[in-house]
Each structure stands twice: as structure tokens, then as C-alpha cells.
């Protein structure tokens, strides 16, 4: 698959350039640039173009925030301009609404999971479409995940229950169209769960009442 070749390239570059200790690692810079490509160069990331400095120093809130610790990205927030303007979504790319038909959420998340220090990830209104892949659980440091206002459909993968540090999960304004999982209460640190404006089915499981703030 196309995305696995990119990963090999990145690992090779990492071997050659891992020596820099203060700046963001070359390896992670390449991953950020790949993510930008996956997201089809959204507006808030235009300033990455022809910028050769440390991406950790380039935040422009609220549209784009990058925070780093020990030369690794710990926080990534991107807010695009593709807010959801349709009421129905059949699972295929929509011109001018979602990312294009060649976007692969699976490849995108594969690349994303190389940023293993990520604690806060917010990807809002970017036209991301597809099923949330199981492998998202590889972001084991994650404390907050927000993918509001995209075109995520299907179910919430049970592997999310392995993100034991998760405190906040927000998927508002997507097309999640399965039942609400029972396992949310196994995430002992989860205090905010927000799934508003989706296409959820069935009852709200009683196990969820332990979570302090939940919104449906
Ligand atoms: C980037 O930020 C670090 C620490 O926040 C600082 O030491 C460094 O001088 C900055 N570099 C640039 C090019 O602004
Ligand atoms: C950064 O390094 C310090 C000291 O080694 C460590 O305590 C801290 O947890 C590290 N932070 C991250 C995000 O890895
Ligand atoms: C969710 O929506 C997709 C796309 O419309 C559809 O293919 C799928 O069958 C739906 N799933 C459920 C559980 O309704
Ligand atoms: C998409 O947007 C472009 C530029 O705004 C416009 O020219 C084009 O007609 C739009 N296409 C559709 C299918 O709406
Ligand atoms: C849950 O939160 C507490 C208090 O902030 C913290 O000590 C603990 O390590 C967290 N648990 C996990 C699995 O991160």
C-alpha cells in the first residue's frame, strides 16, 4: 500500500538525522509534512510551506497549534474550514465537502500513530471521511482526542478502550451511526465524552453514567 512506502522512507530519514536533540526531530517533522499532504494542504498549514525552522515554534492559534516536549510533538491542533454542510452522508467523498476520493483515513491514521508522544490531538473541520481505524489505539499517550465536524461514520472502535490515559473524547458533528459502546466506563480517567450530532442508534448504556460529563 502507498502509505507503507512512506513509512519506510521516514524511518530511513530518522536513522540519518536523529542526532539533533533540541529541535523537533527530523523524523517527526517529516511526519507532520506527510500529514499535511494527507489532509490535502488545508489553509492553516499553508505557513509550513517553505518554512525551514522548527515547526514547534510555528503555532497560529486557534487554527493551528503545535506543542513539543523533548523534541517530540505532544499537542497537535488543526482547525480547517470544511465544516459539515450536508445532512446525509453515504460513506463516499463529496466534492468541496470532504477530502477527495483518494484520501485514506487508514493511511492517515497510520502516519499519525508515528507521533507516539501525542497527548492532545484535535483535528476539526478538515473533511476527514471514513471509519475510525482500530490502530488509533497506538497513540497510547493520548489524553484528549477531538475529531469534531468531520465525516466519520460506522462505529467507535473498541480499541479506543485501550487509550487508558484518555480524559476527553469528542466526536461531535460526525456521522457515527452505530450503537454507543458499553466499554466507556473502563476508561477510568475519561471525564468528558461528547458525541453530539451523530447518527447514533439504540439506548445510552447505563455504564456510561459514571462519566462525569457526557453529551449526546
Ligand atoms: C523556538 O523555541 C525555542 C523554545 O521555545 C527557542 O529556544 C528557540 O530560540 C526558538 N527558535 C526560533 C527560530 O524562534
Ligand atoms: C521529557 O523528558 C523528561 C525527563 O527525561 C521526562 O520526565 C518527561 O516525561 C518527558 N516528556 C515527554 C512528553 O516524553
Ligand atoms: C452507517 O452508514 C454507512 C454509510 O451510509 C452505511 O454503509 C452503514 O451500513 C451504516 N451502518 C449502520 C450500522 O447503520
Ligand atoms: C467546488 O468549488 C469550486 C471553487 O469554489 C467551484 O468552482 C466548483 O464548482 C465546486 N464544485 C462543486 C461540485 O460544488
Ligand atoms: C488517571 O489520572 C490520575 C490523576 O490525574 C493519574 O495519576 C493516573 O496516572 C491516570 N491514569 C492513567 C492510566 O493515565
Automatic annotation (TrEMBL):
Domain (Disease resistance R13L4/SHOC-2-like LRR): residue spans on this chain: 107-197
Pfam families hit by this protein: LRR_14
First and last residue of the signal peptide: 1-21
UniProt keyword list: Kinase, Leucine-rich repeat, Repeat, Signal, Transferase
Name of the protein described by the UniProt record: Leucine-rich repeat protein kinase family protein
Gene Ontology molecular functions: kinase activity
Cellular localisation: Cell envelope
Keyword Oxidoreductase appears in the UniProt entry: no
InterPro entries per the UniProt record, alphabetical: LRR_dom_sf, LRR_R13L4/SHOC2-like, PGIP
PANTHER family documented for this protein: OS06G0587000 PROTEIN, POLYGALACTURONASE INHIBITOR 1
Superkingdom of origin: Eukaryota
Amino acid at each position: 500500500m502507498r502509505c507503507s512506502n512512506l513509512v519506510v522512507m521516514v524511518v530511513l530519514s530518522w536513522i540519518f538525522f536523529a542526532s539533533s536533540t533540541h529541535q523537533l526531530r527530523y523524523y517527526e517533522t517529516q511526519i507532520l509534512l506527510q500529514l499535511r499532504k494527507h489532509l490535502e494542504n488545508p489553509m492553516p498549514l499553508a505557513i509550513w510551506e517553505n518554512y525551514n525552522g522548527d515547526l514547534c515554534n510555528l503555532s497560529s492559534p486557534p487554527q493551528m497549534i503545535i506543542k513539543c516536549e523533548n523534541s517530540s510533538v505532544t499537542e497537535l491542533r488543526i482547525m480547517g474550514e470544511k465544516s459539515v454542510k450536508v445532512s446525509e452522508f453515504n460513506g463516499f467523498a463529496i466534492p468541496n465537502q470532504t477530502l477527495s476520493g483518494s484520501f485514506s483515513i487508514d493511511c492517515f491514521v497510520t502516519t499519525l500513530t508515528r507521533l507516539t508522544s501525542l497527548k492532545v490531538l484535535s483535528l476539526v473541520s478538515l473533511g476527514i471521511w471514513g471509519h475510525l481505524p482500530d490502530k488509533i489505539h497506538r497513540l497510547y499517550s493520548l489524553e484528549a482526542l477531538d475529531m469534531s465536524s468531520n465525516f466519520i461514520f460506522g462505529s467507535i472502535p473498541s480499541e479506543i478502550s485501550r487509550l487508558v490515559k484518555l480524559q476527553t473524547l469528542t466526536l461531535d458533528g460526525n456521522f457515527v451511526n452505530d450503537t454507543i459502546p458499553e466499554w466507556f466506563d473502563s476508561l477510568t480517567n475519561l471525564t468528558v465524552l461528547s458525541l453530539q450530532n451523530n447518527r447514533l442508534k439504540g439506548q445510552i448504556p447505563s455504564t456510561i453514567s459514571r462519566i462525569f460529563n457526557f453529551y449526546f
